Amino acid sequence: ATIAAPYSENFVSYTSFAQPDCWMFAETSVSAGHTFPLVNNIGTARALNFRNQTCAALPTLSNPINTLRISFSAMTDAAGTAIVVGVMTDPNDLSTFDSIGSVPLSSTYAWSNHEMHLNTYSGSGHNIAFRYSGNSNQNFYIDDIHVEEMSGCLNPVNLTVSSLSANQATITWT
Fold first, then answer.
1. Using the 8-state DSSP alphabet, how is residue 9 labeled?
2. Which of 67, 128, 122 shows the shortest CA–CA distance to 97?
3. Which of 31, 55, 147, 157 is placed for a possible disulfide with 7 were both Cys, Cβ 3.0 to 4.6 Å?
Protein backbone atom coordinates (compact mmCIF):
# COMPACT_ATOMS: atom_id res chain seq x y z
CA ALA A 1 0.00 0.00 0.00
CA THR A 2 1.20 3.50 -0.81
CA ILE A 3 0.58 6.27 1.71
CA ALA A 4 1.06 10.04 1.70
CA ALA A 5 2.98 12.07 4.25
CA PRO A 6 2.49 13.02 6.98
CA TYR A 7 3.24 9.61 8.46
CA SER A 8 3.88 8.79 12.13
CA GLU A 9 4.75 5.58 13.97
CA ASN A 10 5.33 5.04 17.69
CA PHE A 11 4.88 1.24 17.75
CA VAL A 12 2.51 1.27 20.76
CA SER A 13 -0.15 -0.70 18.86
CA TYR A 14 2.18 -3.69 18.33
CA THR A 15 2.95 -6.56 20.65
CA SER A 16 6.54 -7.45 21.48
CA PHE A 17 8.41 -9.36 18.75
CA ALA A 18 6.02 -8.17 16.00
CA GLN A 19 7.13 -6.59 12.75
CA PRO A 20 5.19 -3.40 11.92
CA ASP A 21 2.51 -3.50 9.23
CA CYS A 22 3.48 -2.28 5.75
CA TRP A 23 7.18 -2.02 6.67
CA MET A 24 9.60 -4.03 4.54
CA PHE A 25 12.79 -5.73 5.66
CA ALA A 26 15.59 -6.03 3.12
CA GLU A 27 17.97 -7.62 5.58
CA THR A 28 17.10 -9.46 8.77
CA SER A 29 18.92 -11.26 11.55
CA VAL A 30 17.74 -14.13 13.74
CA SER A 31 18.67 -14.13 17.42
CA ALA A 32 17.12 -16.15 20.24
CA GLY A 33 14.49 -17.42 17.82
CA HIS A 34 13.28 -13.94 16.81
CA THR A 35 13.70 -12.16 13.48
CA PHE A 36 15.11 -8.64 13.75
CA PRO A 37 14.18 -5.83 13.21
CA LEU A 38 11.17 -6.25 15.48
CA VAL A 39 9.09 -4.29 17.99
CA ASN A 40 10.45 -4.61 21.50
CA ASN A 41 9.75 -3.14 24.93
CA ILE A 42 12.53 -0.80 26.04
CA GLY A 43 11.78 0.39 29.56
CA THR A 44 8.42 2.14 29.30
CA ALA A 45 8.68 2.61 25.53
CA ARG A 46 7.97 0.26 22.68
CA ALA A 47 10.37 0.71 19.76
CA LEU A 48 11.71 -0.94 16.63
CA ASN A 49 14.77 -2.98 17.64
CA PHE A 50 17.59 -3.50 15.11
CA ARG A 51 20.32 -6.09 15.74
CA ASN A 52 23.39 -7.03 13.72
CA GLN A 53 23.37 -5.89 10.07
CA THR A 54 19.66 -5.26 9.53
CA CYS A 55 17.59 -2.86 7.42
CA ALA A 56 13.95 -1.76 7.58
CA ALA A 57 11.98 0.43 5.16
CA LEU A 58 8.94 2.51 5.99
CA PRO A 59 5.76 2.01 3.98
CA THR A 60 5.94 3.27 0.40
CA LEU A 61 5.33 7.03 0.25
CA SER A 62 3.58 8.74 -2.65
CA ASN A 63 5.32 12.07 -1.98
CA PRO A 64 8.58 12.90 -3.77
CA ILE A 65 11.17 11.98 -1.13
CA ASN A 66 13.17 15.18 -1.66
CA THR A 67 10.19 17.22 -0.37
CA LEU A 68 10.19 15.45 3.02
CA ARG A 69 11.98 15.42 6.35
CA ILE A 70 12.07 12.65 8.93
CA SER A 71 12.43 12.93 12.68
CA PHE A 72 12.84 10.10 15.16
CA SER A 73 14.18 9.13 18.57
CA ALA A 74 17.02 6.63 18.80
CA MET A 75 18.97 4.70 21.42
CA THR A 76 21.71 2.06 21.43
CA ASP A 77 23.12 -0.49 23.85
CA ALA A 78 26.68 0.13 22.63
CA ALA A 79 28.36 3.48 21.97
CA GLY A 80 29.85 3.74 18.50
CA THR A 81 26.74 2.47 16.75
CA ALA A 82 25.26 4.52 13.92
CA ILE A 83 21.94 4.62 12.14
CA VAL A 84 22.17 5.15 8.41
CA VAL A 85 19.08 6.80 6.92
CA GLY A 86 18.52 6.23 3.23
CA VAL A 87 16.01 5.64 0.48
CA MET A 88 15.29 2.43 -1.40
CA THR A 89 13.85 1.91 -4.86
CA ASP A 90 13.09 -1.72 -3.96
CA PRO A 91 12.61 -2.19 -0.21
CA ASN A 92 13.17 -5.94 -0.59
CA ASP A 93 16.59 -5.50 -2.23
CA LEU A 94 19.37 -4.13 -0.02
CA SER A 95 21.47 -3.23 -3.05
CA THR A 96 18.99 -0.39 -3.80
CA PHE A 97 19.70 1.33 -0.45
CA ASP A 98 20.93 4.88 -1.18
CA SER A 99 22.39 6.50 1.94
CA ILE A 100 21.25 10.06 2.75
CA GLY A 101 23.18 10.39 6.01
CA SER A 102 24.39 8.74 9.16
CA VAL A 103 23.35 9.45 12.74
CA PRO A 104 26.01 8.42 15.28
CA LEU A 105 24.75 7.21 18.65
CA SER A 106 27.39 8.00 21.24
CA SER A 107 25.41 7.54 24.46
CA THR A 108 24.46 4.11 25.70
CA TYR A 109 20.83 3.60 26.81
CA ALA A 110 19.92 7.27 26.38
CA TRP A 111 17.22 8.37 23.92
CA SER A 112 18.26 11.16 21.54
CA ASN A 113 16.13 13.05 19.02
CA HIS A 114 17.18 13.38 15.38
CA GLU A 115 15.90 15.11 12.26
CA MET A 116 17.08 14.68 8.71
CA HIS A 117 16.08 16.73 5.67
CA LEU A 118 15.73 14.60 2.56
CA ASN A 119 15.95 17.48 0.07
CA THR A 120 19.32 16.28 -1.27
CA TYR A 121 17.87 12.98 -2.53
CA SER A 122 17.71 12.89 -6.33
CA GLY A 123 16.76 9.26 -7.00
CA SER A 124 13.43 7.62 -7.77
CA GLY A 125 12.91 5.65 -4.54
CA HIS A 126 9.80 5.99 -2.38
CA ASN A 127 10.83 4.06 0.74
CA ILE A 128 12.74 5.80 3.52
CA ALA A 129 14.85 3.18 5.29
CA PHE A 130 16.97 2.71 8.39
CA ARG A 131 20.07 0.54 8.33
CA TYR A 132 22.21 -0.64 11.22
CA SER A 133 25.88 0.28 11.19
CA GLY A 134 27.75 -1.31 14.06
CA ASN A 135 29.23 -4.50 15.37
CA SER A 136 27.47 -7.82 15.64
CA ASN A 137 25.36 -8.47 18.73
CA GLN A 138 24.68 -4.78 19.31
CA ASN A 139 21.24 -3.21 19.20
CA PHE A 140 19.77 0.13 18.31
CA TYR A 141 16.20 1.24 18.71
CA ILE A 142 14.09 3.82 16.88
CA ASP A 143 10.80 5.31 18.03
CA ASP A 144 8.49 8.28 17.50
CA ILE A 145 9.04 8.45 13.73
CA HIS A 146 7.50 11.41 11.92
CA VAL A 147 7.70 12.03 8.17
CA GLU A 148 6.32 15.31 6.91
CA GLU A 149 6.68 17.76 4.08
CA MET A 150 9.38 20.37 4.55
CA SER A 151 8.26 23.95 4.93
CA GLY A 152 9.97 26.84 3.16
CA CYS A 153 12.21 27.32 6.19
CA LEU A 154 14.18 24.28 7.28
CA ASN A 155 14.64 23.62 10.97
CA PRO A 156 18.26 24.02 12.02
CA VAL A 157 20.10 20.75 12.60
CA ASN A 158 23.56 19.97 14.01
CA LEU A 159 23.36 22.97 16.32
CA THR A 160 26.71 23.82 17.93
CA VAL A 161 27.50 26.49 20.51
CA SER A 162 31.10 27.61 20.99
CA SER A 163 33.21 30.57 22.13
CA LEU A 164 31.05 31.20 25.18
CA SER A 165 31.68 34.40 27.13
CA ALA A 166 29.66 36.53 29.53
CA ASN A 167 28.10 38.52 26.67
CA GLN A 168 28.29 36.42 23.51
CA ALA A 169 28.47 33.00 21.94
CA THR A 170 28.98 31.57 18.47
CA ILE A 171 26.13 29.39 17.23
CA THR A 172 26.41 27.35 14.03
CA TRP A 173 24.01 24.94 12.33
CA THR A 174 23.29 23.30 9.01
1. E
2. 128
3. 147
